[in-house]
Amino acid sequence: MGKVNICLKRSLIIVTSLMILAGALMLAGTLFSHGHYHRDDEIEDMIVGIKVLYALSITTLVLPIVGLYAACKEKRWVLIVFTVGMILCNLFVLYMAIHLLIMRPVIIKIMSRFYLSMQPISNTSELELRVLEETQIELGCCGVQQGYKEWGYNISKSCLCNDTSDDCVAAPSNSSLFQLTDNKAVMIYKEPCLPVLLSHLNLAIDVFVGTSAGLTSLWALSCVLSIAVLCQLKEKKDTLVVAYSREAKTGNYAVLAEPAELT
Q1: Burial level of 181, CB count in 10 A (0-12/13-18/19+)?
Q2: What is the pLDDT of residues 206-215, one digit of tens each?
Q3: Cβ neighbour number for residue 16 with a 10 Å cutoff
Q4: Which of 18, 58, 103, 260 stands the most exposed, by the fewest C-beta atoms within 10 Å?
Q5: For the CA atoms of 110, 112, 114, 116, what is the dihedral angle to 10 degrees?
């Protein structure tokens, strides 16, 4: 078995260490998301995505640990397992990123159609109304496309704005909110929800694609380094060939000069 170049070995150790850190952060983010949606009773709608994130984050945490062990101990079969696993992870994440980019227009169209179906708000169902109110609270917006005016007289409490920033405007004095505050000034969100939601959706897709590109680049580098280490481990060391000679054993030497001639 050949000897691995020390610089190559250290490079693989550094890259796998960075991958372990990235995998730990991904797992922490998945745990946080799980807790957030479980607290808001939305876990049933997100359970499939959370399971996929768990599987991906655990895999991308365990495989680099295997690669780090293989790099330190120079184990060929462990390096092979690490390389094959990272190649499969690369292909899976690249497929997801490309598929999401292709499906972006379709996702935006479906989301827009769903929220536009809530208009007019006065005729929407209780389920859709609850979805809209939760969206208004989370995104800091009011209404679907035309702002608070879509609510008419009965403006939802989820439109209330607690600060005096540019995102807030004074509610109409003839709205139901003034009856709850003794005709005091009431601030509500100015922006409608659909443009804000689509902006957040596009940002989330861009962040996912950018993160995927960074991770796959790091994983691809680890695969290249691992393959290079495997190639060096496969090379045989050059050894000196020792030939046995019967004449050397019996002392068959030629005398170059007589002792008397040397004096």
Answers
A1: exposed
A2: 988 998 898 8
A3: 26
A4: 260
A5: -150
